[in-house]
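Why show two proteins at once? Because comparison is the fastest way to build intuition. When a single record is shown, students tend to memorize it. When two are placed side by side, the eye starts asking what differs. So, the first record is below.
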Amino acid sequence: MRNKFKFGLWDLLLLGIGLIPLIVAVIYYTKLPEQIAIHFQISDNKPNGYLAKQYALLVIGLITIGIPLLMKITRLIDPKGSNYDKFGGTFELIRLCTSLLVSGLMLVTIIYNLGYSIDMLFWSILGIGLFFIVLGNVMGRIRYNFFVGIRTPWTLASEEVWRRTHRLAGPLSMIAGIVMLVSLFFTTSRWIFLLAIIIFAVVPMVYSYFISLKVAQK
């Protein structure tokens, strides 16, 4: 690693956000069922995946604490690590939003398992939709790297393809996020949500391929 691993106040904030679901789970541990629902079918919004209570809390902790921590580590080991200095604030905003998203979803999951009437699909679409909107606002600032952003064989092979693909992906991400939020007012929200995800995943990939062909011809 080129840089030393430093754990500062910002990291403490993200750690605190990640601990919230675990703290709630520990406080209400005796009221939680022995089998925790951790996965839900998008087709009918019913749980279809369970874990024993103690293991479920371990998985929740690994997700809410581990993901932001892993993002910090990848910045240090990325061969293009020097580029992070060019979008450091944006990267940390993405870390924060990621932490808020996963911790929020895990907290809602715990509340569901405590017996409250929670629409998991609604909260999932709401959280992911907001995340996409924020991501779309900063997508164009993400500089060439190997871990954050639209990573296709063509964006990773050319900084120009990377730049042009992210310029497209930014507005597309915002539109996808807005569509997700609007879909909450319709009974077909789950299918609209899936369609928005698919379009966002496919369009930048295809676009980066065709842009790479144009760049290669120069």
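Second record. Ask yourself what differs from the first in the token line.
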Amino acid sequence: MNVHQSLTAARSVESLPVAPAPVANDAMVRFEAVSKVYPAYRDKPSVQALQDIDFAIPRGSITGVIGRSGAGKSSLVRLINGLEKPSSGRVVVDGRDVSALAGRELRLAQRSIGMIFQHFNLLSSRTAADNIALPLEIAGWSKADIAARVAELLELVGIADKYDRYPSELSGGQKQRIGIARALATRPNVLLSDEATSALDPQTTRSILDLLANINRELGVTIVLITHEMSVVRQLAKEVVVIDSGHIVERGHVAEIFTHPKHPVTQAFLSEVIGDSVPVSLASRLVPQPIVGGKAVIRLQILGTDAGDTIVARLARELSSDVAVLSARIDEIGGQHVGSLTLGVPGGEAAAIQAISYLTRQKFSAERLGYVA
């Protein structure tokens, strides 16, 4: 995929058809039983890139689509912006069946879908302002309107002072801000971010994700994050879709997925981000059988702002014994507090069973990890 393919979507100057007024919580993007097969070519066999994809992206949301290389993420993007057609099923964007459009109608629909690229795809011969102006020139805007819109966008992305700088004079983060401004030039309703931060350092990544959050908040643009980095999903998205070998293997609210991952692929992604909440010094002492005078080690997951505030004290009262906090980790993910507490409960197996039973009744997810002296 390259910048010219995406920008030619803006060639026509006719107005988009007026869509019906959206209802609350409706879908901006909807996949309906979508499969994508790339046919055999020369000595290469056919490839099933996507199979039985069914999910919706809410209007105005930030949704992460995460998967390993080759999972089908790029095919998903190309179906949303109409650069590929599904082999079966429908892809509906803002009420239009993009998969059924062609020619001028497709180009008009594509104008409402912005694209941010991993490697920026800026034209080296154009200044920052001229790169942003390119889709507007193709769309037939007047010079005065282009100048006003470019100035507005440079201000929005925080680099108004780089107006006349060339890409070679800009840092990676500045180049990506230009890429974001260009993607927003024609006022799209959907913004596709295809691994947009994977070429950036961690500090710059955070600033770009903060910018995208602000754009979503201020402009109401629906953002789709295509990434292989769960840390990006954790910082920015509210919903997440996990894709593997062309199938959706898990999806839901980010906080729920982080606290209760069900599929091994999701669990592997999460282990790379949060690791094991049990300290190595504690994990090395765990044994499977109770120890006389020792403690049962129990881990519970916390979801919600105040969920874990009093649980240790309540558990201690329930057991009529002291409960030690051996380790704790709390994060804010998808607008919710999520975390993990590792507790030491005096007594043997009976005490561990009683503790887990009580925690389960209090709607916590708890598991016994073992015992320590």
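One difference worth noting in the second protein: The mean pLDDT is 86.
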